Amino acid sequence: MLFIIGVAITCLVPFLYMIALSLSSNNAIISQKVSLWPVEFTLETYKTILSDVDMIYTLGYTIVLTILYTIICMFLTICAAYPLTKKRLKGRDFVLTILVITMYFSGGLIPSYILVKNLDLMNSMWSLILPGAMSVFNLIILKTFFASLPESLEESASIDGCNELGILFRIILPLSMPSIATLSLFYAVDRWNGFQDALFYITDKNLYPMQLKLYQIITANQQLDTQQGEGSVGAFIVPESLKAASVMFATVPILVVYPKLQKYFVEGVMTGAIKG
């Protein structure tokens, strides 16, 4: 119990600090008066963000990117996991072995970059979707969940004349909503928080996802701080409150979605990991 409380505090304190920074004046932040409660409360940073057309566009683009990525990933994961539950599938163990090997070994960063470039996916939304379109870890969880369902359900549906697709869409998927919702959350959070692939594959600012946008803001601030330290004149410093507000702006959408899927979270992961 104490361990759980400690973990909760460790996660909560930085979050509260970022909220306090985003709602405090820049003078209070520079004076180091802000701790876990806003000082000289202000909403100017949020007004600045909401009035920034580029930031709103990036938010909308990232939402569309995340939704599309999640749909494609779940489609591929379901299409791979369901057949692998069938003992009559020839070569099933070999396919599973190959998939598991990819969890431990990969081509590396440079081969991945060359592959994306040769496929002409640079500066494209698809460069952020296709390379990571299926997680083997999530595939194994969903496969185990499918395998835990009673075979009698499929046998009854087959007797009634239902084919494999009918069994999948009418019986298996409705019963697997806890796992599907959980894995969808995994995929969505992974894409929402991802910026490294965009850093390598995207140079068009119109295609920047939210995390790369935030990365650019923080990097620009650090560069300007360095210039000011070297004595340059007229350097514009991005306020710490604006950086904090930008982080909160990117975090809120996931925080809104998570509670709606939380009821499926524990059930989906535990069933998929333990049963079978």
UniProtKB/TrEMBL annotation:
Keyword flag Transmembrane: yes
UniProt cross-references to Pfam families, sorted A to Z: BPD_transp_1
Keyword vocabulary terms for this entry: Cell membrane, Membrane, Transmembrane, Transmembrane helix, Transport
Keyword Transmembrane helix carried by entry: yes
CDD domains on file: TM_PBP2
PROSITE patterns given in the database record: ABC_TM1
All copies of domain ABC transmembrane type-1, residue ranges: 59-260
Annotated compartments: Cell membrane
Transmembrane annotation, as ranges: 55-82, 94-116, 128-146, 167-189
Family affiliation: Belongs to the binding-protein-dependent transport system permease family.
Name of the molecule in the record: Carbohydrate ABC transporter permease
Organism name: Paenibacillus chondroitinus
Classification lineage: Bacteria, Bacillati, Bacillota, Bacilli, Bacillales
